[in-house]
Amino acid sequence: MNSLSEVIAVLPAAGIGSRMQTACPKQYLMLRGKTILEHAIEILLYHPIVQRIIVVLNRQDDRFHSLPIAGNAKISVVHGGDQRADSVMAALRHVEKNAKKSMWVLVHDAARPCLHGDDLDLLLNIIGHSKIGGILATPVRDTMKRAIAPVAARATIAHTVERQQLWHALTPQFFPFELLKTCLSRAIDEKAEITDEAAALEYCGYYPQLINGRSDNIKVTYPEDLALAEFYLTYRDHQE
């Protein structure tokens, strides 16, 4: 790993998590005595390579500042936008004035509490041999079907999708600061439909690496995911 590169982390946490069907935004749901957001932050906070963490919050957020972790000197808070891309751009603009040419940005989902340190190290190590960056991902294991109707409707099968080259995109996603800022800015300006940072790079003709990560690095999206995340963290504690 290039020790001359500065690494900052960005956690977009401005969403409300409507699919969890709870009054509380999902990043603030409790998991083994801490919020999901605290779990997501801490794995980055205590990594020696990550120098700074920017948490992007909704303007109406009244929960974060009451968390014990909120007072850590490495953590800054900015307000996000309507979409994920807007929130990440807000974080990049927050550090733009003091950004070095060698700066890299690690973007991690606020609702992904099970990131393992080994996966984080694997991703960070691409600094030494990539100018574009990469993402944690897992190869698709299941048979994939394309539907005729949208997921929310009563879907029927259109056809089976060849899975050999399909991967599940995870986070963190890790890119040079200037490249990510340029690609995100263009994607936002041109109203491109992007759901993660890698998609912004793809939109601009760059193709990040896929770093094979652990399948237990789940995103808490639906109510049943919370119990699964608790199982993974408990099992990991017993193994270590």
UniProtKB/TrEMBL annotation:
Transmembrane segments: none annotated. CDD domains: CDP-ME_synthetase (cd02516). Keywords: Isoprene biosynthesis, Nucleotidyltransferase, Transferase. GO terms for biological process: isopentenyl diphosphate biosynthetic process, methylerythritol 4-phosphate pathway. The record marks R19, K26 as: Transition state stabilizer. The record marks R163, K219 as: Positions MEP for the nucleophilic attack. Pathway: Isoprenoid biosynthesis; isopentenyl diphosphate biosynthesis via DXP pathway; isopentenyl diphosphate from 1-deoxy-D-xylulose 5-phosphate: step 2/6. Its EC number is 2.7.7.60. GO terms for molecular function: 2-C-methyl-D-erythritol 4-phosphate cytidylyltransferase activity. The keyword Transferase applies. InterPro entries: IspD, IspD/TarI, IspD/TarI_cytidylyltransf_bact, ISPD_synthase_CS, Nucleotide-diphossugar_trans. It catalyses: 2-C-methyl-D-erythritol 4-phosphate + CTP + H(+) = 4-CDP-2-C-methyl-D-erythritol + diphosphate. Catalyzes the formation of 4-diphosphocytidyl-2-C-methyl-D-erythritol from CTP and 2-C-methyl-D-erythritol 4-phosphate (MEP). Homodimer. Belongs to the IspD/TarI cytidylyltransferase family. IspD subfamily. NCBIfam families: ispD. This is 2-C-methyl-D-erythritol 4-phosphate cytidylyltransferase. It comes from Candidatus Fukatsuia symbiotica. The lineage of its organism: Bacteria, Pseudomonadati, Pseudomonadota, Gammaproteobacteria, Enterobacterales. The gene is ispD.
